[in-house]
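User: Hey, quick favor. My workstation is busy. Could you predict this chain's structure for me?
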Amino acid sequence: MAVTVEAVIPLLRDVRDAEEAVAGQLRADLAAEPARDHRQTLEDHIQEVDDHIHELNRRLEQLTARGPLSEAFITLGGQAVSTSRVLWRLTSGLPAAVRTGHDGHTPQRLLKDIEEEFAVAAKAAAAARAAERFADEIGDSLDADMLRGIRTDDERFLNNLDHSLEEAADVVVRVKTSEAGGGTAPAS
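Assistant: No problem, here it is.
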């Protein structure tokens, strides 16, 4: 394996870790029972992110040595990821009032959730962009193409979140305006 290809391994791991953070955040927010439109956005992107993680893990396995010790770490790592997914799924079945950190389905909570989703998704897109750029520079077209696809999906999700953020902010303004005495919200 060329030194330059070995150098892409930590970048692929960074992208995978960022994608796992996105999946965790989206699953947690999905458990809060968001509005129907936003719920569909989350469900769609969770599937994409799970596919990205699988693809990245497969590629990392191809690039890394597969001796007995590394094989044990891969197995243990896979079990840890599987266990955390089971825990997320179990937690998502709890009512919103029971889950720590959620104050029910309020416009303010939805706005805060979307802000947090935007932050982790932006980190994932940035990690994919950096790794893609590196792979392009070293002539690693296989990884560059994979990373370009991940970045494109992440950027599309960020665009969807941008629209959701605007809608959620408008709702919060309307709620706050009506609570403050009924006036109308400023036109956008």
